[in-house]
Inverse folding.
C-alpha cells in the first residue's frame, strides 16, 4: 500500500519543480516579484529596515533595492540561474524526505513489524532518507550564505531545518538500541531465563516519538520554506500560491494517512495487550484453583487400599 502512494507523490513534486523552474526562468528576464526593474511585493518581517514589513517607513523603492541587491549578490545572470536550480533541488529533496520517504517507511514498518525483511527495509530506507536530507540541508545552507547579509538566518525555516537535521542524527542509534534490547529479551524468554517481557523499551519509545515529532516538524518546515522563497527574487506570487496549494494538498494527504495508520496500530496493539493480560490472569486463576503435583500424589496415595 505504501509503494502505491509513493510514486504519485514523487511525480506531483517533480511536476511542481518543473512548473516553478519555468516560472523563475521567464523570457522577460524577470525573476519572481522582481521583474523588469519593478518590484511587486514586500520583504519578510525580519528584514526590518531593509525593505520588509518590519518597518512602516520603508518605501517600495527600498524594497526593490533589497531585491535587486539580493539578486545581484549572485554576481551574474548565470550564477542567479544556478542558484535557482539549487533552490529547486533543495525544495524537492527536502519535500521528498519528510512528505514521502520518512512517513512511508514508518507506515511500512507497521504493516508487518515482526518481519525481519521489513525491519531492514525500514532501517536502511530511513538512513538513506537522512543522507538525502543532509544533501538538501547542504544546498539550503549554501543558498542562505549567499544572502546572509539580508538576515536569512533569522528566519525560522533554516533554524528549524538545522534543528531537525541535528535531532534526526540520533534516530538510528535509538532504533538500533531498542532492537538489540528487544532481541536479547526475546532470546532469554525463549531459553526459559528470567527476563522482562519483550516490548517497547526506553530507547524504542524515544525513537518512536522523536520520529513522529520530526515528521510533523519536517512537513511544517516545508511550508515555511515556501513562505521564505516567496520573499526572494526567485519566485513569483503565482508560483508561491501554486507551490503552497500543491505542497499543502500532498503533505496533508500523507499526514492523514500516516496518522490513520498510527491510530489503527496503537488501537490494535492496546487490544492485543489487553487480551494477553486477560489470558495470563486466567492462567493464574486456573493454577490457583488446582492442586499442585505433590498434593495430587498425596491424595492418590491416601485413596489406595492399605496392605499389611
Amino acid at each position: 500500500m505504501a509503494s502505491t502512494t509513493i510514486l504519485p507523490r514523487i511525480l506531483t513534486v517533480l511536476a511542481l519543480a518543473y512548473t516553478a523552474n519555468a516560472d523563475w526562468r521567464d523570457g522577460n528576464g524577470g525573476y519572481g516579484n522582481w521583474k523588469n526593474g519593478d518590484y511587486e511585493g514586500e520583504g519578510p518581517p525580519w528584514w526590518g529596515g531593509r525593505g520588509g514589513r518590519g518597518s512602516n517607513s520603508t518605501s517600495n523603492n527600498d524594497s526593490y533595492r533589497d531585491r535587486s541587491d539580493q539578486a545581484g549578490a549572485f554576481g551574474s545572470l548565470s550564477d542567479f540561474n544556478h542558484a535557482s536550480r539549487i533552490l529547486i533541488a533543495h525544495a524537492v529533496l527536502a519535500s521528498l524526505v519528510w512528505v514521502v520517504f520518512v512517513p512511508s517507511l514508518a507506515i511500512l514498518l507497521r504493516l508487518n513489524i515482526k518481519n525481519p525483511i521489513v525491519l531492514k527495509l525500514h532501517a536502511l530506507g530511513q538512513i538513506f532518507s537522512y543522507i538525502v536530507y543532509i544533501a538538501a540541508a547542504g544546498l539550503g545552507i549554501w543558498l542562505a550564505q549567499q544572502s546572509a547579509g539580508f538576515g536569512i538566518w533569522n528566519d525560522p525555516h533554516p533554524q528549524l531545518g538545522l534543528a531537525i537535521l541535528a535531532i534526526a542524527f540520533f534516530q538510528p542509534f535509538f532504533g538500533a538500541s531498542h532492537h538489540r534490547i528487544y532481541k536479547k529479551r526475546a532470546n532469554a524468554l525463549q531459553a526459559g531465563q528470567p527476563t522482562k517481557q519483550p516490548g517497547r523499551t526506553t530507547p524504542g519509545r524515544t525513537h518512536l516519538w522523536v520520529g513522529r515529532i520530526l515528521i510533523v516538524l519536517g512537513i511544517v518546515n516545508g511550508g515555511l520554506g515556501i513562505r521564505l522563497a516567496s520573499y526572494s527574487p526567485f519566485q513569483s506570487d503565482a508560483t508561491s500560491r501554486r507551490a503552497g496549494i500543491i505542497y499543502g494538498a500532498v503533505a496533508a494527504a500523507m499526514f492523514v494517512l500516516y496518522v490513520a495508520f498510527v491510530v489503527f496500530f496503537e488501537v490494535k496493539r492496546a487490544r492485543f495487550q489487553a487480551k494477553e493480560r486477560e489470558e495470563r490472569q486466567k492462567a493464574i486463576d486456573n493454577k490457583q484453583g488446582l492442586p499442585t503435583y505433590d498434593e495430587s500424589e498425596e491424595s492418590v496415595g491416601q485413596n489406595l487400599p492399605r496392605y499389611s
In short: The radius of gyration is 29 Å. The first helix runs from residue 2 to 24. The longest strand covers residues 34-35. Confidence is low (pLDDT under 50) at residues 1-8, 13-41, 45-67, 295-302.
